[in-house]
Structure formats: structure tokens, C-alpha cells
Design brief:
mainly alpha; 12 helices
Length: 243
């Protein structure tokens, strides 16, 4: 819990500060590039789009940075475990992986390459980060609506409902799955539908995104994501070591 909370808070604050103050990025873009590494990768970015009401182009860029650096992490951590001195136990290394790698599948892949103990711990820590999606977005949504400047002629009351209701569906699904044991065939079918819907959502973003929009955003999102990647690798190790 401590590792997940520190990494989420640190990544969001560091990403927003560096993005807006040092790189002079659009606040939305800075936050979108920070949310993915902080919580659960592309899923968090897609969810953040509805809370921040940002453009599909910014979402696509943020998803691209998550895919790039998350994939690098998936190969980097097993290499670090095997070939670099790290002074971490298997449990601590699992905390390290779960608290810092972007996507859930990337965490599972990296952990399983090492050993079952690392994989189990990493998965638990990563799912703790995923569960923090709800309170984090509630806080961000509230703060963002207070900071947002209405466009000319816009009725601010139309955007007063900042509650991400999908978050409560997420919590409800977790509670339901924890209390009621569904047959494996049903769970497998749900997973299949879930993958299909997520694929369609990603495809829809791609259909509304062009190379010109990437050029419009520029290289700053990738620079920010590089800095956050270094923070995750180094800061995450320090948290895992001293815990």
C-alpha cells in the first residue's frame, strides 16, 4: 500500500510539475502522460480522457508513451534481476516491479520470467495500484473542474457533474467477483468481451488521430515520459529497498 501510494502520488506530482513548469506543456497533456505510468497504463489514460475531457490526439500520444516505456520495462526488470546488483529480496523485487511497471500484463510477464514469488508479489502490488484508480480520479476530477477555465459562452453548470460513475462500476465488479465465484467459462467469456471492447476503443482513438496531430503535440510528451520512466526505475528501487 505504501509503495503504491508513494509511486502514484510522486509520479503524478513530478509529471505535472516538470511538464507544465519546465517543459511548458499543456496541463492536460502533462497530466495525461503522467496518469498512465502512475496507475495502470493505457487503461488509466483512456479513463482519464473522460474525466479531463481532453482530445483523442492527446490520448493517443499518452497511450503511445505508455506502450513504449512499459514494453522497455518488461524486458529491463528481468535483466536487472539477473545481471545487476540490486540487494533486493524476491518479495522486495516483486514490490519494485508491481509499483513501477505501467501495465498489468507487463507486470505479470516480467514477474513470471523471474520466479513465482516475484510474480505473485508484483501482481498484488500492481492490483493495489489499479484499485487506487477510483480515489485518484475522484480527486483529480474535482480539482480539475475547479481549475478549468470555461470557454466563452459555456454554461459551467453543464460540466458540474465530475463524478466518474464508471469508477463505481469498477468497484462493484471487484466486490461482486470477491463475494461470488463465477464458473471459469463465464469469466473467460467476460475476458474475451473485455479485450474486444478495449481493442475497439483503442481503434476508435486511432481512427480520429493522424500523424499531423502527433507533430502538433511535439516531442515534449516523450521527453516527459522518459523522465518519469527514470523516476519509476530509480525511485521505485529506493522505495522497495527501504520498505
Amino acid at each position: 500500500l505504501i509503495a503504491a501510494a508513494v509511486m502514484i502520488t510522486g509520479t503524478l506530482l513530478l509529471g505535472y510539475f516538470i511538464g507544465t513548469r519546465l517543459l511548458k506543456m499543456d496541463p492536460e497533456m502533462a497530466l495525461m502522460c503522467s496518469i498512465g505510468p502512475a496507475i495502470c497504463g493505457a487503461s488509466a489514460v483512456l479513463a482519464a480522457e473522460s474525466v479531463l475531457r481532453t482530445s483523442h490526439a492527446k490520448t493517443a500520444v499518452a497511450v503511445a508513451t505508455v506502450a513504449l516505456f512499459g514494453t522497455v520495462s518488461m524486458f529491463l526488470y528481468p535483466f536487472m534481476y539477473a545481471y545487476l546488483p540490486h540487494n533486493l529480496s524476491d518479495t522486495s523485487f516483486g514490490i519494485y516491479i508491481g509499483a513501477t511497471i505501467h501495465e498489468v500484463p507487463q507486470v505479470i510477464a516480467a514477474g513470471n520470467v523471474i520466479n513465482p514469488t516475484v510474480a505473485q508479489t508484483a501482481t498484488i502490488v500492481k492490483m493495489t495500484r489499479v484499485l487506487m484508480l477510483v480515489p485518484v480520479f475522484l480527486i483529480i476530477g474535482f480539482i480539475w473542474e475547479k481549475m478549468r477555465t470555461p470557454s466563452p459562452g459555456e454554461d459551467r453548470r453543464k460540466h458540474s457533474d465530475i463524478m466518474p460513475w464508471w469508477a463505481f462500476i469498477f468497484v462493484g465488479a471487484v466486490a461482486f467477483n470477491s463475494m461470488i465465484s463465477l464458473p471459469k467459462v463465464v469469466i473467460s467469456s467476460i475476458h474475451t468481451v473485455d479485450i474486444f471492447l478495449l481493442t475497439m476503443a483503442m481503434g476508435a482513438i486511432g481512427m480520429e488521430t493522424t500523424i499531423a496531430k502527433f507533430e502538433e503535440v511535439g516531442t515534449k510528451p516523450f521527453i516527459l515520459s522518459s523522465v518519469l520512466f527514470i523516476w519509476l526505475v530509480t525511485g521505485g528501487w529506493a522505495i522497495a529497498y527501504y520498505l
